Amino acid sequence: MALKPADIEALIALFGTSGWDEMQLEIDGEELFLSRDSRSRLTAAPAFAAAMPAPLPVAPSVAAATPASAATPAATPATTPAATPATAVANVPATRPGHWVALKAANLGTYYRAPSAEAAPYVAVGTRVTAETEVCMIEVMKLFTTLRAGMAGTVREVCVTDGQMVEFGQDLMWIEPA
Amino acid sequence: MGLNRLFVANRGEIALRILRTAKKLGLETVLAVSDADRDSLPAQMADRAVCLGPAAATKSYLDINLVLHAAKATGCDALHPGYGFLSERPELSRRCEEEGIIFVGPRAESIKALGDKLSAIALSKAAGVATVPGTDHITSVAGAQAAGEEIGYPVVMKASAGGGGKGMFRANGPADLAARYDSASREALAAFGDGRLYLERFVEDARHVEVQVVGDGEGSVVHFGDRDCSVQRRYQKLIEEAQVTAMPPALRDRLRAAAVQLTAHARYRNAGTVEFLYDVARQDFYFIEVNSRIQVEHPVSEEITGQDLIARQLSVAAGQGIGIRQDQVTLTGHAIEVRINAEDPLNNFLPSPGRVTAWQPPTGPGIRIDSHIRAGDLIPPFYDSMVGKLIVHAPDRDAAIEAMLRAIRDFRIEGPKTTLPLAAHIIDHPDFRANRFSTRWLEDTALPAFLQE
Lengths: 178, 453
Fold this sequence. Notes:
The structure holds 2 protein chains of 2 kinds.
Chain A: H1 5-17, E1 22-27, E2 30-35, E3 65-67, E4 101-104, E5 109-112, E6 128-129, E7 134-140, E8 143-148, E9 153-158, E10 165-166, E11 171-177
Antiparallel strand pairs in A: 1-2, 2-3, 4-11, 5-7, 5-10, 6-9, 7-8, 9-11
Chain B: E1 5-8, H1 12-24, E2 28-34, H2 41-45, E3 48-53, H3 64-73, E4 78-80, H4 90-98, E5 102-103, H5 108-115, H6 117-126, H7 141-151, E6 155-159, E7 169-171, H8 174-192, E8 197-201, E9 206-216, E10 221-233, E11 236-242, H9 249-265, E12 269-279, E13 284-291, H10 298-305, H11 309-317, E14 334-341, E15 343-344, E16 350-351, E17 354-355, E18 358-360, E19 367-371, E20 378-379, E21 386-394, H12 397-409, E22 412-414, H13 420-428, H14 430-433, H15 441-452
Parallel strand pairs in B: 1-2, 1-4, 2-3, 4-5
Antiparallel strand pairs in B: 6-7, 6-8, 9-10, 9-12, 10-11, 11-14, 12-13, 14-21, 15-16, 17-20, 18-22, 19-21
Helix pairs in contact in B: 4-5, 7-8, 12-13
């Protein structure tokens, strides 16, 4: 069971209303560390900031969530609700093969992995794609643009989560060319 | 402060200016950036910077949908548009309101009403404030000639649908009107889709004066003094001053009263500038237009009043009113601002983008630099060329002139060419020192003299 962003949000909310100073949680190899002190750090695995949808419900400082398998360098922990979150989530390999190609956002917007809330995602890790394959949608003020893979290959990594705001140039997914 | 998180939809020095005050007031800040501004000083200063799109302004700062989406998705409850870009698009004000985001500026209807030249003139008349003697739409050469007789030559014919010189010409007598009326109307039609012209008195020696106001949107308006912006090239201001010492005190009182009267009548909300044409020969002034945004030259008004105008803007936006009464605003001393443009005045003001290898502003009491530039920064070629503003405040105009000359001399900039050397030449010029110049002076007199040196 992987910690999903909704889970992390719920845990942050719970922590916020608790009287605790610090919480360290390990579930199935993933660790979550929350602290009211913005200077404290989880001493074990490298820190890896989770994608946080803004606004956060908790006022005190919140340190980053940490998938234990992450090997990427430390990112800035969120110290205010408006702090810059890095991209997040599961399926991050230790090193990314150099021949993989990133699909990047062409503008800021909200990322959607499926055509609608009830539908299946356009793609997942392992999906074979062609240049014309629809892979996601970016929405800007209710205007939806469907992105296509632009190349033949296999989706190897999805970097962002459904409903997350993405910025221009942000990596959305990595595709291994066929 | 009733606001929580402010979205700043601009870049460069004004973004930095807004962020400074927002932070001072304890607001969280989110800045919109284009790909070219990711590493800028404002981006580092904001709590969060979000990249809207590539460098091109049309794909980033000018895209209303991207701006609104970013403000909403980052949980901002207010948005400051700065100046330029989207700041005077009524649509931004309206859509912010629709999305539940407080727009730090006027209502959409105000921006629209004041943005249309003839509508603004009508508003001025309704408020009892004099406009340049002129007409409504002229429909024939005969009509133009009759108006010319009544107003007095020389006159200028202008297109009502737009500016920039299109469809505009000066007429010294009825023969000029007959000769140029039809072609001007065709030019206006081609440029704006509307060939209608109107006629105004042409003032030979005009000065550009303006009044800084802040309104609460309910009929109360406070002014923060007047400014003289007569040093212009192609209708772009280069040097601005506060206070307007070229006007006698009684006339200045009337000027400020007129600005307040007009904007109060319009129930103007937030900061704005009322622009007037000062007819020195006739010792009279005429309303020209209202700029419904914070302006580039606002620092000179801040210096002579000791007030933070961005804070006043945020106060009105937060529903807390202007926050100061007129009798609490005092005007002290004289301030001069010089715009620093990355352009080569010796090469027809060709833009000079590129790496800034040295940036050492002058320091000292009465010296203020509003700039986002640091040594090592790259000035991008995608936006206007203004890289900063140098402002001095001194007890009187002569002292301010000396202080500005010293400040420019002590300012070390290497890398791009700038307009600072030209500014020094202007400020040292006898006409400038004597305060005897019109809006044509820079192009007719000072610039040619500078180029000959």
